[in-house]
Amino acid sequence: MSINRVLISGNLTRDPELRATASGMPVLALGVAVNDRRKNASTGEWEDYANFVDCTMFGTRAESVSRFLAKGSKVAIEGKLRWSQWERDGQKRNKLEVIVDEIEFLTPRGDGGSLPTRASTSASDSDIPPAPEVTIYDEDIPF
Hints:
It contains 1 helix and 6 strands; from the N terminus they run ββββαββ. With 143 residues, it is mainly beta. It has a 5-stranded mixed barrel with strand order 1-3-4-6-5. A hairpin with a 2-residue loop joins strand 5 (74-88) and strand 6. The model is unreliable at 113-118 and 120-129 (pLDDT under 50).
């Protein structure tokens, strides 16, 4: 058995690019920077190192999502890995990307982004109730 699932959270490295296939299906290209925390061997200090991940989303949701995202927006993405290979100008090229199944906007509306919401929902902003503040204590957990 093999499992191909990816969960990442990070900031968009560029404005999303919306295109269409020859058949007219919308395709959204996203670049996401995801930090990796490592200890610097020479200084002993913890440092953040950026990993840059190409992500692609297909279909009508891609078109809708493109209107709410911009460079710097914080997102959480769930999807699967896909490896592609092609030839351009006589050189073989390849890339590993995440095919987006779900995307959640994490940038608050006042910060130039949209309300935190999942792209898979069809509710409009006016249908989303404010989230109540919830406090959970250890004694509330039944195990």
